[in-house]
Design brief:
alpha+beta, five-stranded antiparallel β-sheet, five-stranded mixed β-sheet, 22 strands, disordered N terminus
């Protein structure tokens, strides 16, 4: 078998990202340690900065004395151009309209919260979207607290200014800008009475009742849920709903659908866009932010940030090899092996895919509405052998719970499963045949699997071979990307096809979002599960008021998912990020909607990257 790492198709990633947003699973939620009705104030301790830092030179003294990852990077340098690759065109510029250009929104706009960049990567993985509440910090927000459950008070960082572009003209960022953004998006005030179509169906935002500017720097948000994590986790989500646009620009132009109207408080100013070709941002010389590790240094370091639109991976890899782009993420093992031979100087970083790969049978149709059939599908597969022979050991060899085995401290990892549950996932073709016979299929049955032509056909052939050995005749049906996307969105309700390759387990994103993954009627419920016991976990999670209680509910939910075999666990492979050796500060930081247009950084990160000109010159670039 060809050693090729599993790669979920572009269309699956796009659709899953969209589905998560449409059903509330793409919005975030964070976990608070609050156990009383008056949660403690959460403060980042960050220092307010001003535009006067613009001329400050880099200092060689890091604030981290622990000898961690950052201390090995050297002294940051100003100047130069960073070039990233995007694999689809950009044709949307307004958060109100959705997430079309989410991969670059946060270049010029900012969010209320951001990850805490002082945390050592050995403590918190920068490759995951989920950052626990205690490891987050404010971005536009300085401090925050929950005076009562369901009430979140935000204290804005003072001294932040909009970019000096008409009609904002560099005025100060204030609380009414925050309330205007949410009122416009959700129809809660400022003349807006209906939510934006993109956000009307997002369940999590229906829980936000009001947003009020109490004074120049204080915002109060009222939520219908008492779980304090629900509010803060959702406000940390790196998506369009949390990008604060310029009210002045909206009032002047009505919308921001023209890229010329892009105005924010962020580290970059959008200066050029050529459809199908590139987008360019310039350094915001009056940006308020400074480097957490070099606090005298104003950000960003690079003068220019360019995004080249290159749909084809092979073309993008050629551009990486010749130094025309600085980063590619979500690449395969085979691509990394090839690159190592031609360009050993390029840095390769491996990390788990953001969700595992599953076979999602329709739980509402025979034969898959019988748990014995679903268990038979599982025990017919030899996962450790697939991990070794197909992935070359670059995949976790064990079954995946709902929450990834890699997400430490959360969920119900395979290592904690009781032996009787492990036995339900261990390779056992004899048991598979018995289960099928007990379910009324002594000679097996015929079924189909549908996948995108861009999918992993080798993996599907392996699955087909294992199933054939126990009497399951699985026909492989393929579709082009567009047709497959439509097929997934529709839930294939009018199609006889019963299976599809998807990613419903091994999730590494925010815990509260995970509960809706298989919720009845949810767009992300690819296996068409309708189980009231499962649905009750989300309701219970919304009612807890402590991190410990939320972790327990998530553990119970994971255990139930594993016991019910709603979907068939395949494996969670490692994927790879490639970057030029002159790009410093990069550690495969999580990209916002991983895989669908990468890299799609929360642009909080690239402001902290820099180009080492000495390394670049030494390589003749």
């Amino acid at each position: 078998m060809k050693r090729k790492i599993l790669w979920l198709t572009l269309s699956i990633a796009l659709v899953v990202a969209m589905l998560l947003a449409s059903c509330g699973t793409a919005t975030s939620t964070t976990i608070s340690t609050t156990t009383t009705s008056k949660p403690a104030t959460t403060s980042t301790g960050a220092v307010t900065t001003s535009a006067t830092a613009a001329t400050t030179k880099p200092t060689s003294t890091s604030t981290n004395a622990s000898g961690n990852w950052w201390d090995k990077l050297g002294t940051p340098q100003y100047g130069g151009t960073m070039t990233f690759r995007i694999n689809r065109d950009l044709n949307g510029w307004d958060p109100y309209a959705g997430e079309v250009a989410i991969q670059i929104y946060t270049g010029w706009m900012e969010q209320l919260f951001a990850p805490d960049y002082t945390i050592d990567p050995a403590v918190q993985s920068y490759n995951f979207s989920f950052w626990p509440n205690e490891q987050a910090k404010g971005q536009l927000v300085q401090t925050w607290e929950f005076p009562t459950l369901g009430t979140l008070v935000l204290h804005l960082r003072q001294g932040i200014h909009w970019q000096n572009i008409p009609p904002a003209n560099g005025r100060e960022f204030v609380a009414s800008d925050v309330s205007y953004h949410f009122n416009r998006m959700l129809g809660l005030g400022d003349g807006y009475t209906k939510p934006a179509p993109m956000w009307a169906s997002v369940a999590v935002w229906r829980s936000l009742l009001s947003v009020t500017a109490d004074d120049k720097y204080t915002v109060t948000m009222k939520w219908s849920t008492n779980n304090p994590e629900f509010a803060t986790e959702n406000l940390q989500a790196p998506d369009a709903s949390n990008c604060v646009e310029s009210p002045d620009a909206v009032k002047q132009w009505g919308d921001l659908n023209d890229w010329h109207h892009a105005i924010g408080t962020g580290p970059w100013v959008l200066t050029d866009f050529v459809a199908g070709s590139s987008a360019t941002m310039a350094r915001n010389s009056t940006y308020w932010g400074t480097d957490e590790h070099f606090p005298k240094n104003q950000l960003p370091y690079a003068d220019t940030l360019r995004m080249l639109i290159i749909p084809d991976d092979a073309t993008a890899l050629a551009a990486l090899r010749t130094g025309k782009i600085d980063i590619m993420d979500q690449m395969s093992l085979s691509q990394g092996q090839s690159l190592k031979k031609t360009n050993p100087e390029i840095v390769q970083i491996s990390y788990p895919n953001q969700y595992g790969t599953t076979l999602d049978p329709r739980n509402d149709k025979a034969p898959f509405n019988d748990i014995r059939v679903r268990e038979a599908l599982q025990v017919a597969l030899d996962l450790p052998t697939i991990s070794t022979s197909y992935y070359g050991g670059n995949a976790d060899p064990w079954p995946m719970p709902l929450t990834s085995n890699y997400m430490k401290g959360w969920g119900f990892p395979y290592s904690q499963w009781p032996q009787d549950l492990k036995d339900q996932y261990a390779y056992n073709p004899t048991l598979a045949k018995k289960l099928l016979s007990d379910a009324g299929y002594p000679t097996g049955f015929k079924t189909d699997i549908v996948a995108s032509l861009a999918g992993d056909m080798d993996l599907i052939q392996i699955v087909k071979s294992y199933y054939s050995a126990v009497g399951i005749d699985m026909e492989i049906r393929t579709m082009d990307d567009a047709s497959f996307s439509a097929f997934v969105v529709s839930g294939h309700k009018n199609d006889a096809l019963a299976n599809r390759l998807a990613g419903s387990l091994g999730l590494v994103y925010y815990p509260l979002r995970q509960f809706t993954r298989m919720a009845t009627g949810a767009g992300s419920n690819l296996a068409v599960v309708a189980d009231p016991v499962y649905d009750a976990f989300y309701t219970k999670a919304l009612g807890v008021t402590s991190t410990a209680d939320l972790k327990q509910v998530l553990t119970d939910c994971n255990k139930y998912v594993a016991q019910q075999h709603f979907v068939v666990s395949l494996l969670q492979p490692m994927v790879y990020s490639f970057n030029q050796p002159w790009l410093k500060g990069y550690n495969a930081q999580y990209s916002a909607v991983t895989g669908s247009a990468g890299p799609q950084f929360l642009f909080f990160w690239p402001a902290r990257f820099w180009i080492d000109q000495n390394v670049k010159k030494s390589l003749g670039r």
